[in-house]
Specification:
Layout lengths: L2 H12 L4 E2 L2 H4 L15 E3 L4 H14 L3 E4 L16 E4 L6 E5 L4 E4 L5 H8 L4 E2 L12 H7 L6 H4 L6 E7 L5 E5 L10 H5 L8 E8 L1 E2 L3 E9 L2 H13 L6 E6 H11 L9 E9 L4 H14 L2 E6 L3 H12 L1 H7 L3 E4 L2 E2 L5 H14 L5 E4 L5 E2 L1 E5 L4 H20 L24 H14 L26
Parallel strand pairs: 2-4, 3-4
Antiparallel strand pairs: 1-2, 5-6, 6-10, 7-11, 8-9, 8-10, 12-14, 12-15, 13-14, 13-18, 16-20, 17-19, 18-20
The structure holds flavin-adenine dinucleotide.
Length: about 475
């Protein structure tokens, strides 16, 4: 089918105003928050499951590749249409369909912005827990595809622990339903399989999530340290004490300085590291719990421990953490945000190695991360017009990832593999592991039209070309 006929057919499904095909309209859809770019041929904006089904039937019949897109905040290149074709933009499927307080469930379309769901329930004292730092802009569909995490996932689990059911359009256009509002369903756990499948098994068009009552009491503390080592030891000591904070985040000096210059959150710029610790629970006992955590920090050489005295102070401390990437983005032309996980007891050793790697490649590095989970986010600022610097930043990134794996960690904590790390998958999976996963993919996506080029190594490419922006 020629391009014009395909545009006409897509326009019949979603309306002519909901099909983009001119280069100037497509430009925005060639990238996400990763470094690469690739132009789609079409962008379509469906509003219903049936429209998505019809679009995928056309794509499947015409053998046109397609990729789902939420807000495009993904950091591993998941929404980049590496083989062109159709971007199925879900931003207009943004309705909260039902909030069932009695069952503590919500049913949403995939384009609902993460934070909007919690805002919609705030008056009733409920919220949706997974809270990526990008929650003001990322979509719940994108969170499902990436199995997103966030500061409060330490105590409550990541997206997969909060998703109970899905409506999914398979690559051939068929519509399936997995799970539901009840607690457990017989048969294979397809919901579990689809969460974190990075948009390679189908397009999610409806999501049933758990919602939770907000805690009766919250205490937020900011502990500052004169060394990363003391801060990291404090993280282990808090967890070992038997208390799992709702959130336990760490930032190093470069990150503190960037944040303070931008957000004026009250972080001490003289500190080498800060821990942002949030405790949640019943009012009774909360002061005692906070005192215990303050004592642990002090016994690990905290220079100062601030306890937010009211909601305004609490929000100010969180503002610093949530805008950290933006604050660093303000002082450089681009940054490369890594995502890797190490066992918590390896935090200190791996962080020291990260600084050495940065020095070796003469790049800067700032660390802002979910310390309680051992989920590191080294952030390497760079100037995209300086090819040599970009190359050094990419090489440093390769080495950081390998160092995390050697420490017993893994390739990604929450951002996914996408096209950023697909060539590195053999570092953590053997041939049999990868073959088993590819067989699953082939059942859902036999022609590889649905988000091709993601997760798995591309035949003919090798580790040396890993992470080179394409
Ligand atoms: C500043 C910043 C901070 C971040 N902080 C965090 C964090 O704390 N935790 C975290 O986990 N991530 C974080 N991220 C990464 C990103 O926000 C998440 O991966 C998020 O889940 C992506 O959502 P999105 O709507 O932008 O998805 P997109 O980027 O549009 O897409 C991501 C992937 O999901 C697929 N997809 C999207 N919608 C669907 C759908 N309906 N059906 C099937 N597949 C779909 C796409 O094809 C793609 O593969 C951060 C990003 C930025 C820029």
């Amino acid at each position: 089918m020629d391009k014009k006929s395909l545009i006409d057919e897509l326009a019949q499904i979603v309306g002519v105003e909901n099909v983009f095909h001119e280069p100037e309209d497509l430009i925005t859809y060639q990238y996400d928050a990763y470094l690469s770019r690739a132009m789609p041929d079409f962008v379509v904006f469906p509003t219903t499951t049936e429209q998505v089904s019809k679009i995928l039937k056309v794509a499947s019949r015409e053998k046109v590749p397609f990729v789902a897109r939420g807000a495009g905040t993904g950091i591993s290149g998941g929404a980049i249409p590496v083989k062109g074709g159709i971007v199925v933009a879900l931003s207009r499927m943004n309705k909260i369909l039902e909030i069932d307080f009695e069952s503590r469930r919500a049913r949403v379309q995939p384009g609902v912005i993460n934070l909007d769901l919690s805002h919609a329930m705030k008056d009733k004292g409920f919220h949706y827990i997974p809270d990526p730092a990008s929650q003001q802009s990322c979509t719940i569909g994108g969170n499902v595809a990436e199995n997103a995490g966030g500061p409060h996932c330490l105590a409550y689990g990541v997206t997969t622990n909060h998703v109970l059911g899905l409506t999914v359009v398979l690559p051939n256009g068929e519509i399936i339903h997995t799970g539901g509002k009840a607690l457990d369903y017989p048969g294979y756990d397809l919901t579990g399989l689809l969460v974190g499948s990075e948009g390679t098994l189908g397009i999610v068009t409806e999501i049933i999530v758990r919602i939770e009552h907000r805690p009766e009491a919250v205490k937020t503390l900011l502990a500052s340290f004169s060394s990363m080592l003391d801060a990291a030891k404090t993280v282990s000591a808090i967890i070992a004490s038997g208390t799992i904070p709702a959130a336990l985040e760490m930032m190093d000096k470069p990150a503190i300085e960037a944040v303070e210059a931008f957000a004026h959150a009250g972080y001490p710029v003289e500190a080498a590291a800060v821990l942002l610790i949030e405790l949640e629970g019943l009012k009774d006992g909360m002061d005692r719990l906070a005192k215990k955590i303050v004592e642990i920090c002090q016994s690990h050489k905290a220079i100062e421990v601030k306890v937010a005295q009211n909601e305004q102070e609490r929000m100010q401390l969180w503002k610093g953490r949530k805008c950290a990437a933006g604050a660093i983005g303000r002082i450089c032309n681009k940054y490369y945000l890594h995502d890797c996980v190490v066992p918590r007891n390896k935090l200190v050793a791996v962080l020291s190695e990260i600084y050495q790697i940065a020095e070796k490649y003469q790049v800067q590095v700032a660390n802002v991360f979910h310390a309680g989970d051992g989920n590191l986010h080294p952030l390497v600022p760079m100037d995209m017009s300086d090819r040599d610097q970009v190359e050094r930043a990419l090489r440093a990134g390769d080495e950081i990832l390998k160092c995390c794996i050697q420490a017993g960690g893994t390739l990604s904590g929450e951002h996914g593999i996408g096209l950023e790390k697909n060539e590195l998958m053999p570092l953590i999976f053997n041939e049999a592991d990868l073959t088993a996963m590819k067989k699953v993919k082939a059942v859902f996506n036999p022609e590889d039209l649905c988000n091709p080029g993601k997760i798995f190594p591309t035949p003919g490419r090798c580790l040396e070309v890993t992470q080179r922006p394409r």
